[in-house]
C-alpha cells in the first residue's frame, strides 16, 4: 500500500528526471521539474499541467509496488507528512544497516567477554550493568583519552562511535531532503566531546563509518553526497541536532541507538525517529535490527536467539530478523517492513504490511514487557501490579523501544515503566513508539491516564509516576486502577 499517490494526475517517465538517479526526489529537484512542466504548458495540453500556485500541494513520489520504478506526479492534496515519513523510513533503514555492521563486529571481537583492567579477571558483557555503562560512557565522553576502568574501551567507543555515526547520517539525510533551514533535530548525542581535538581517532572512525553508510545511499533511493563528507561536515550534521524541542514549531526527535546496553551486549536495541509539530508527535519510525523472526524468541537469551535465527530459514510469512515499523498520526494504520538485505534496492513501500495490536484483553493470557535493567524500572513494583491484575505470564524483559514495537506488532499486550523517583523520562525514548502503538490500535498514557506530553522540551514534563502502554483500553484501565491501589505502599 503506498502511503501517498492516492490520485494520479500524470505519469512521468523516469528518464525525464535525469538529474537524479534515485526514485526519491528531494524538494529542489521536484521544484525544478514542476517549473519545467509549467513552462512547457505541455505534454499535449493547452493548459499548464501544474500551476505554480498549486506547487505546494503537488507531490512527486514513488508509486505502487507493481509500478515502483516510475514516478508519479499528483496534483491532489498529498496526505500530510507522507513525504516526511518516507524520508524518515529510508533514513532509519540505512541507520539499521550501519548499526548491524558495527554490532556484528563488536560481538565477534568481544566474544561475550571483556577483561577487567583492575585485576585482569574476566567480566562478561552480560555482567556489565547500565550503571557501569553510564559511568564509563560519561568518562569516555568527557575525556576520550582516559582509559576506562574496564578494558571495554573498544566496546564502549564502538557504542559511542555508532551513536554519533547514526546521528550524523540521519541528520545529513533529513537536511539533504528538506533543506537545513527546515530541519530542526533534538537528539541524544552531544557533539562537544567528539569535536575535541584529542578525540580525533574517534572522529576519524565516525567520519569513515558515515561515509561508508552514505555510499550505500543509492541502494535506498537516495543520491548520497557527491564526494565523501569531511570532518567538518560530519560534525556539522551532528551539531545540527541542537534543538531544545518545545510546544511550538516542527522538530525531529532522534534516539540514534536506544538501548545502548542492549547494543553493546549484542542484544536488542532500536533506532527511533519521530517528528513533532506543535507539541504533538505526528509520525514515528522505529528500526529494530534484531527483532527476531518469531515472537517467542524475544524472550530467548541473545546467544541462543542468534543460533536459532541462523538455523531457521525465513518463510513466506516471515523474514530474517529485523524490521522497521512506522505510523503517521491520524492514519489509523501502522506498518512494518523487513530490513533491506544483500544488494537489493529499496523500493517504497518495501513490502510493507499493516500491523495491529493484539486483541487479547484477558490478563490471564496477556504478556507484559519491561526494561531488562531494574535500575530503569522497578521490577518488584510491576510484579505486584501483574499479580493484582492477574497477568500470569512471565514478564518479557527487552532492551529499548523494541518493547513498543512488540506491543504494536501484537507480540505482547502491556509495557510498563516505573523509573526511580527523580528520574525524568526523555522524549526520544518514547516519541516514535507512542504514535506507532496508538495508530496500531493501542493506548499509551502515564499512570494517571493522561497522554504523554511531548511539548515540554527534552523531558516528558509532568509525567505522572510511569508509562503504561497497552494493546487495549480494558487492560489499560485495570493497570491504572492497580497502580492507584498500590502506589502509596510502594517504595517509589
Ligand atoms: N535510571 C534510569 N531510569 C530510567 N530510564 C533510564 C535510566 N537510565 C537510563 N534510562 C533510559 O532508558 C533507556 C533504555 O531503556 P530500556 O531500559 O527500556 O532498555 C536509555 O536509553 P539509551 O540506551 O538510549 O540511553 C535511557 O534513556
Ligand atoms: Mg534511549
Structure characteristics:
single chain; D-Maltodextrin-Binding Protein, domain 2; binds adenosine-3'-5'-diphosphate; 492 residues; binds magnesium ion; alpha+beta; 16% strand; 13 helices; 5-stranded mixed sheet; 34% helix; 17 strands; disordered N terminus; 7-stranded mixed sheet
Task: Describe the model.
- The protein is α+β, with helices and mostly antiparallel strands and 492 residues long.
- The chain is 34% helix and 16% strand.
- It contains 13 helices and 17 strands.
- It has helices spanning 27-40, 82-110, 130-142, 153-178, 192-195, 200-214, 231-239, 260-264, 302-311, 379-389, 402-408, 431-439, 473-486, and strands at 10-12, 59-62, 71-74, 113-115, 122-124, 185-187, 250-258, 270-277, 280-288, 323-328, 334-338, 353-355, 368-370, 396-397, 414-417, 443-446, 467-470.
- A seven-stranded mixed sheet has the order 6-7-8-9-10-11-12, sandwiched between helices.
- Strand 10 and strand 11 form a beta hairpin.
- Helix 4 packs across helix 7 and helix 10 (379-389) crosses helix 13.
- It is globular.
- It starts with 9 loop residues before the first strand and ends in a 6-residue tail after the last helix.
- The structure holds adenosine-3'-5'-diphosphate and magnesium ion (MG).
Secondary structure elements and their pairing?
Layout: E1 10-12, H1 27-40, E2 59-62, E3 71-74, H2 82-110, E4 113-115, E5 122-124, H3 130-142, H4 153-178, E6 185-187, H5 192-195, H6 200-214, H7 231-239, E7 250-258, H8 260-264, E8 270-277, E9 280-288, H9 302-311, E10 323-328, E11 334-338, E12 353-355, E13 368-370, H10 379-389, E14 396-397, H11 402-408, E15 414-417, H12 431-439, E16 443-446, E17 467-470, H13 473-486
Parallel strand pairs: 6-7, 13-14, 13-15
Antiparallel strand pairs: 1-3, 2-3, 4-5, 7-8, 8-9, 9-10, 10-11, 11-12, 15-17, 16-17
The structure holds adenosine-3'-5'-diphosphate and magnesium ion.
EC number: 3.1.3.7
Protein name: 3'(2'),5'-bisphosphate nucleotidase
Catalytic activity: adenosine 3',5'-bisphosphate + H2O = AMP + phosphate; 3'-phosphoadenylyl sulfate + H2O = adenosine 5'-phosphosulfate + phosphate
